Amino acid sequence: MLDPADNLELPAIPSKRYFTIGEVSDLCAVKPHVLRYWEQEFPQLKPVKRRGNRRYYQRHDVVLIRQIRSLLYVEGFTISGARNKLAPENPDGVDVDRERAIRALIRELEDVLSLLKEL
User: Fold this and answer.
1) Chain centre distance of CA 112
2) Cα dihedral across residues 82, 79, 18, 32: positive or negative
3) Exposure of 107 by Cβ count < 10 A (0-12 exposed, 13-18 middle, 19+ buried)?
4) Which residue has the higher pLDDT, 12 or 2?
5) pTM of full prediction above 0.70
6) Distances 52 to 42, 48, 55, 57, 116 between C-alpha atoms, Å
7) Predicted pLDDT at 103
8) CA–CA distance, 64 with 42 (Å, rounded to integer)
9) Distance of CA 12 to CAs 30, 33, 37, Å?
10) What is the structure's pLDDT at 45?
11) What's the sign of the alpha-carbon dihedral 71, 73, 75, 81?
12) Mean pLDDT along residues 3-24
């Protein structure tokens, strides 16, 4: 594990559409074989694959890799711990609080509608 004091400032991400695995390796201070391993461990990390199975990462992939790197090397998470930390709160994609608020709003609107019908 890296010492947080040794955490070097990572270079700025250039404004490009796609990055090769070598470029991402340099931008994130992680070796290419580690990036390939992380693709297997983190379902969110899906680089575009083109001819010859070459990987092309997008900006959001680079940001995600930096988050993973920070969780593993700086904060001391395990692979499974980092995977859980990055997983969405609700895997079904349904925001429970938002759903409750919408239901409450619908009830209020129905109450207002019934009051207006009485007039």
Assistant:
1) 41
2) positive
3) exposed
4) 12
5) no
6) 23, 12, 9, 15, 67
7) 87
8) 10
9) 15, 22, 24
10) 93
11) positive
12) 78
